[in-house]
User: Fold this.
Amino acid sequence: MILGLFLPSRRGYGISDPTKPNFAHSQEIQTEIPKFLSKPSASERHLQTIKANHLPSLLSTYLTFSTPAMKLFLSGVSVALFWTAIRPCNAYPTSEIESLKAYFSENRANARTPATPYDGVFRPDIPSYVGVSDIPQQLIEEADQHLEAFIDHLKSFVHHTEFESGLFEAQRNRSATELHQITVLVERVAPFRRPLTGRLRFATHMFRTMEKASDDMRDYGLSGTDNLLVRCIIQLNVALLALPVKPNASQLEIATYRQNLTQFRRVLNSWSALFATLSGVPLKSREKFEHELSGAEVYVAGIGGAHKGSKRGGLDFFFFC
Assistant:
């Protein structure tokens, strides 16, 4: 029984087959395994200390009071103790350690990295795909259809220059869930349908703009011309996002779009002139109106004149592609 304590530990650290570890897909564990196998555990270091420091003194006591035969036997045990004390306790075969290192190195080289999450949208990591055959064409078309349907859904809250924030609030949580699901789907197929990425950015921007507009409008009541104009300019900035038409729009739709854009410019000029005539406007309301007005003017100038030489008349600016 005493000899059993002196034998070196040969534990395999729970790895029954070094070529098939259960944690092969954890990159952190893959990195730490070779380090873990190269040094003894805390319990083994404690056992080494006992072997090296305490047991030799106990054997010395036995040698003092034992018979010559027992002294000879215990002397041999002392030599064995000294050898086991200086020998690494884990004693894991070098060939198996190298086998593990090779396995993990190969596994990391073949691992698929997660797709980069879209900024501002929470979703789980989606694996990137390494071949077109991994993505069915039906899935790509499904992502396209869901994304366009969601954008049309957001546009349904807008009527000319009015944003129906009450209806939007009633469906806000549901719309947020739909956007999350569509984002996950689009991220899976984006490498094979690049324009979807631009459309997803726009849909996300439009939804966030509606959220902020709905929240901001609560700060301004329905009484007073200044409050009314602030609410109107907030809604108009939302309506501008719903103004442009789809890339495959007909000539009639494009003509209608340009006509509406001209009307929006006139509305902005009219509201700006009216607000300038108001007196006693709170600083908060004045700053908010000027901020929203500036944003609307920049956006109108961008979608209306950014590409005057283009046959699409600036529509490309809108789609962020």
In short: Residues 251-276 form the longest helix (26 residues). The chain has a mean pLDDT of 68. The chain has 13 helices and two strands.
